[in-house]
Design brief:
The complex is a heterodimer of chains A (about 475) and B (about 350). With about 475 residues, chain A is an alpha/beta fold. Chain A folds into two domains: about 5-255 and about 460-470, Aldehyde Dehydrogenase, Chain A, domain 1 (3-Layer(aba) Sandwich); about 260-445, Aldehyde Dehydrogenase, Chain A, domain 2 (3-Layer(aba) Sandwich), CATH 3.40.309.10. Chain A is built from 17 helices and 24 strands. Chain A has a seven-stranded mixed beta sheet, with helices on both faces. Chain A has a five-stranded parallel beta sheet with strand order 12-11-10-13-14, sandwiched between helices. In chain A, a hairpin with a 2-residue loop joins strand 8 and strand 9 (about 150-155). In chain A, helix 3 (about 60-80) packs antiparallel against helix 5 and helix 12 packs across helix 13 (about 305-315). The longest helix of chain A has 17 residues, at about 60-80. In chain B, the strands form three sheets. Chain B has a six-stranded mixed beta sheet, sandwiched between helices. In chain B, strand 3, helix 6 and strand 4 (about 150-155) form a beta-alpha-beta unit. The radius of gyration of chain B is 20 Å and the shape is globular. The chains are: A alpha/beta (about 475), B alpha/beta (about 350). The interface between A and B is medium-sized, with 12 and 18 residues.
């Protein structure tokens, strides 16, 4: 298939820009896609008209939108869908190959992410119930209803959910999919190397019967992203710590940054640590360690050296393989410089003392590895003597974690903000302390890998509460 | 006029300008002193435009560091001059002295405007940097020359640049909104047919009101570079395809390079500008070896030479780059296309902020 042209979608209307940029296949000069770029002022203009798109979704029945979402999931997974502007179709396999060509992700991981996304569509009613604590979705049609015996009314706090998507993880598209069933149109800014997933999800929705007006897609430069962030009613943003800091007090913006997710083993379970090695390895390495829900710090009361050695040995088995190797679990870097910078940061941390790269003795070759024109970083587990070490609480875009020993009584004071904490323990006193710990966003008790999340739980904020405001409401039946 | 005739006209202008600026009776102290130390007499050696290469690049710092009186031709020394400023976000701005050049330049520009879209007798509004800028007087003169009056709404670009450097984007937007409110009020309540503004401000006005529905027929725009996609956006969406968009390229040192608005769409909105020859010449040069003129179709740095009795400025390197384009039947000399800030692809440039 020749390189398709990914256009701008303006409330579903295809717009081919004169500002066209090419994304090449990684390690090649061959074009994988041509992308239409939107100018910032165009986005400003379009944002003012998003009320029209919202009105179209609002006029539909929520139940129908739920069914459309479920159907879209099947279509996303199995159907040939339009790609570009010339009437070409993209099969699910074409999608895998296109995304692999620009993102560096192995085919196996893309398929895993596809399956995960498909699951989101399919669970939409469960997700809605989970996020609304059992609200009857018809309340969104009528504007009011009853929940738990009390009258309730919700109003949308925005005409659009804008999402500034990253290039490194297709699964993050899961976060906006439920917005359609909640009758809020989406405005997406895709990552430069990853227009494929948002495009395909949109096409699946449209084929399933969703009005195209619900979807706006704006590949754009920094100034365009700035307009979206400053002007959209609600924004999901993926970024690093400095981005999070910039917007942490803006209620319009939900920032998805580094997760600093952690796996803790309690003193009551530490003698059984060998039973949890699979969980630790999966938590660190799932999705090539790219997710904010991947474990970046393992905290144990003792046996730190022994645990580090066994986990490192297992992680070292994950090697850079050909992208189409079914066993491939490690992703290359779309931006080859990133691999160099990250490797330098790890080396710098190791040189500062107090940390040892335990994987070094088990892996083949250096951490930094070149293959098929792409840069890889091989999994790395460091044993840190204290939390003060630079690498003890760090998160990188590859399978990386530290192992730190710490008495259980001090753990919650030391671990800092954590998107996910898995605590392996049966100690009810400690579990109660974990429940009360304000710096833990998602909490798993027991042998649950940090990367396994249920979407009916809030993730870095509750999407329904982000998009809707509950208003005080009374109704006189005689009126 | 054929390209050969245009070239003869330019060579004649060069000879006349050199004679004027390097003769003690008419020339200015700056160039007369320069000639004393240069070791050669431009009046003897400059026979046409090709010889201009013998001059070094004009440094715009000279317009800040030298006293303005040093640029006053002796022929004008008893006439008070206008002072026009450029740049100056911090420190002393660069200044150019002038008398009638802006009138000549804008009368010449007026001849290129369509009476259909810029009706004679119609009033104008200028929204943008006024203050000590040549543009403020020039636009008013243009309006008067065409039989209309001109309203003004000022925007201080130096303040906007400071806000952006400090990353105070919110303040910058609020300041822009403050300017817009004033512009919109005037457009709504006065009979205005034509506007001069910058591309960003035009888009900002269009966000608030339908420009064409308020009677505006023609929009003359300049001040910052525009990509073809942005030009298309302005013409098709901001002006709704109803008012004519006339992009220009110019500054205090040159005058106005014009485009051919009727051909924008057929050229995929890629704008080519033609200098007001023979009063000014634009050349696209190799950025590293500026004596070399780039081939047609190639990007290079923009070099400007200004050749009037009021101001002689040889080989000034603009902070822009552009594609060298072939002469047009209407303007039979080289054009410069798709202008963008010099080094735009390799560094961050604060440009187009207003």
């Amino acid at each position: 298939m020749s390189a398709p042209h990914i256009p701008i979608l303006r409330q579903g209307r295809v717009y081919k820009s004169l500002d066209v940029q090419t994304v090449n296949r990684l390690g090649s000069t061959e074009a994988a896609a041509e992308i239409s770029f939107a100018c910032a002022d165009m986005i400003k203009y379009d944002l003012r008209k998003m009320g029209q798109a919202r009105a179209i979704l609002k006029a539909m029945r929520s139940e129908d939108l739920i069914e459309i979402t479920k159907k879209a999931g099947e279509i996303f997974l199995h159907d040939d869908l339009p790609i570009g502007i010339d009437g070409a179709l993209q099969s699910p396999e074409d999608y895998v190959l296109s995304l692999a060509a620009t993102s560096g992700l192995p085919h196996s991981l893309i398929r895993m992410n596809m399956k995960r996304l498909g699951g989101i569509f399919g669970q939409i009613d469960t997700i809605f119930r989970g996020l609304t604590r059992g609200l009857d979705i018809a309340v969104l049609d009528k504007g009011y209803g009853e929940q738990g015996g009390s009258p309730v009314s919700f109003s949308a706090s925005t005409n659009e959910l804008a999402v500034i998507l990253p290039s490194n993880s297709p699964a993050v598209n899961a976060l906006w999919i439920p917005s359609i069933a909640m009758k809020v149109p989406v405005l997406l800014k895709p990552g430069r190397e990853e227009p494929w997933t948002p495009w395909r999800v949109i096409q699946a929705f449209i084929k399933a019967g969703c009005p195209p007006e619900a979807f706006s897609l704006y590949p754009t430069q920094h100034d365009g992203s700035g307009v979206i962030i400053r002007r959209a009613g609600r924004v999901m943003l993926f970024g690093d710590d400095s981005t999070v800091k910039q917007y942490e007090h803006d209620p319009r913006i939900e920032v998805h940054g580094t997760g600093y997710s952690k796996l803790l083993i309690g003193e009551d379970e530490i003698e059984n640590w060998r039973d949890y090695v699979d969980t630790i390895v999966e938590s660190i390495s799932a999705n090539s360690g790219r997710s904010c829900i991947c474990t970046s710090t393992v905290v144990v009361p003792k046996y730190g050296d022994e645990i580090a050695k066994v986990v490192a040995q297992r992680l070292a088995e994950i090697k850079p393989l050909a992208q189409n190797d079914p066993e491939a679990r490690l992703s290359g870097f779309a931006n080859p410089k990133f691999a160099e910078w990250i490797n330098e940061a790890v080396e710098s941390g190791l040189k500062s003392g107090g940390a040892t790269d335990v994987t070094a003795e088990f892996r083949e070759g250096e951490r930094f590895h070149e293959r098929d024109g792409m840069n890889y970083l091989q999994p790395t587990l460091v044993r840190c003597q204290t939390f003060d070490q630079d690498l003890a609480i760090r998160e990188f875009l590859f399978p990386f974690a530290s192992v730190v020993e710490c008495p259980q009584a001090e753990m919650l004071d030391k671990i800092g903000p954590s998107l996910v904490v898995t605590a392996i323990t049966r100690d009810m006193d400690w579990i109660n302390q974990l429940f009360d710990c304000a710096t833990i966003d998602r909490l798993n008790i027991g042998n649950v890998p940090t990367n396994r999340i249920q979407w009916d739980q809030p993730h870095e904020g509750n999407l329904f509460e982000f998009l809707y405001t509950r208003r005080s409401f009374q109704i006189a039946l005689s009126a | 006029m054929s390209p050969d005739e245009a070239r003869s006209q330019l060579d004649a202008q060069v000879r006349e300008t050199i004679q004027w600026h390097f003769s003690p009776e008419t020339g200015c102290p700056f160039w007369l002193d320069w000639a004393k130390t240069a070791g050669w007499d431009p009046r003897q050696e400059i026979k046409g435009y090709d010889d201009i290469i013998k001059f070094p690049h004009f440094q715009d710092e000279w317009l800040r560091d030298e006293k303005n009186e040093r640029f006053v031709p002796n022929a004008y020394k008893y006439r008070p001059f206008n002072v026009f400023e450029t740049g100056g976000t911090t420190g002393l701005p660069k200044q150019r002295v002038g008398w009638d050049d802006y009138k000549h330049d804008y009368e010449q520009f007026s001849d290129t405007l369509s009476d259909e879209f810029f009706p004679r007798g119609g009033n104008w509004i200028m929204v943008g940097p006024t203050g000590p800028r040549r543009l403020r007087l020039a636009v008013e003169h243009l309006a008067n020359h065409r039989g209309g009056s001109c309203y003004f709404v000022d925007l201080d670009p130096r303040w906007v640049k400071k806000l952006i450097l400090r990353k105070e984007y919110d303040q910058a937007e609020r300041y822009q909104a403050h300017v817009m409110e004033q512009a919109v009020e005037i457009i709504k309540h006065r009979d205005i047919k034509c506007i001069f503004t910058t591309p960003k401000l035009l888009a900002s006005i269009g966000e608030r009101i339908s420009i064409s529905s308020h009677g505006l027929r023609g929009c003359f725009c300049g001040g910052t570079s525009m990509t073809p996609e942005y030009v298309r956006f302005l013409q098709e969406e901001v002006l709704e395809g109803k008012a004519q968009f006339v992009p220009t390229y110019g500054n205090t040192l040159m005058g106005l390079a014009v485009s051919i608005p009727e051909e924008l769409k057929q050229n995929q909105y890629s704008v080519t500008y033609y200098a007001p020859q023979p009063r000014a010449v634009l050349r696209i040069v190799d950025a590293d070896k500026t004596e070399i003129t780039k081939d047609y179709g190639e990007y290079g740095r923009v070099e400007l030479t200004t050749l009037t009795k009021e101001f002689f400025m040889p080989r000034f390197l603009e902070r822009d780059e552009a594609i060298r384009r072939k002469p047009h039947a209407k303007y039979p000399w080289d054009g410069v296309g798709d202008v963008r800030p010099f080094g735009a692809l390799t560094k961050t440039v604060i440009e187009g902020v207003y």
